[in-house]
């Protein structure tokens, strides 16, 4: 299925998520099958891809709300715990995805897809899974030790049934995270079409002029005159 291929090839770009979301809404009459496909791909793909699917879910819910096709939203509300368990499993293998899950949950709460109580409950579970520095499967490999004890390092690559991500996956994740951080900085500095709203907000934040302000202004004026 084309939708399956789109999910498997998602990357950090907004365009790839939006393209897959457009496809899902175009074939909204198959929404239950498409939703099942999302859950299936979350179970089958790498942790990097699961993180990309998590970001895609936020785009899908946002677009579904705007197009008033709330079936996608309702199904995601029902299965959100299953999604979180797939993206950041309790065994620690997805510890690097915990921040991704938190960011998307916050976005879904702001878009009123998820209730605050639901997000708070999930956050309680995520605290136990945020173990990037502690989990042995995510700790760095010592190159010298690997040469001296190759067999022990091979066993260390899979501890408690959790596989260590390979070098290619790590590099891909670093690049994708860099792209997302870049977009986040751009969105922070973006100037929206708000008219005078920004001016009014800043004006409201400024305190009223008092006697001290007039005195300070007079002192500044006097200092400028003396400077000349």
Strand order of the largest sheet: 1-2
Distance between the termini: 78 Å
Strand percentage: under 5%
Structural class call reads mainly alpha
Overview of the structural elements:
This protein is mostly helical. It has twelve helices and two strands. A two-stranded antiparallel sheet has the order 1-2. A hairpin with a 2-residue loop joins strand 1 and strand 2. Helix 2 crosses helix 4, helix 4 packs antiparallel against helix 5 and helix 6 runs antiparallel to helix 7. The longest helix is centred in the last third of the chain and has 23 residues. The chain is elongated. The protein starts with a helix and ends with a helix. About 10% of the residues have low confidence.
Q: In summary, what is this structure?
A:
This protein has helices at residues 2-8, 14-26, 31-44, 47-66, 71-87, 98-110, 116-126, 143-148, 150-156, 167-189, 197-205, 211-227, and strands at residues 158-159, 162-163. The protein is an all-alpha fold and 228 residues long.
Blueprint (SSEs and pairs):
Layout: H1 2-8, H2 14-26, H3 31-44, H4 47-66, H5 71-87, H6 98-110, H7 116-126, H8 143-148, H9 150-156, E1 158-159, E2 162-163, H10 167-189, H11 197-205, H12 211-227
Antiparallel strand pairs: 1-2
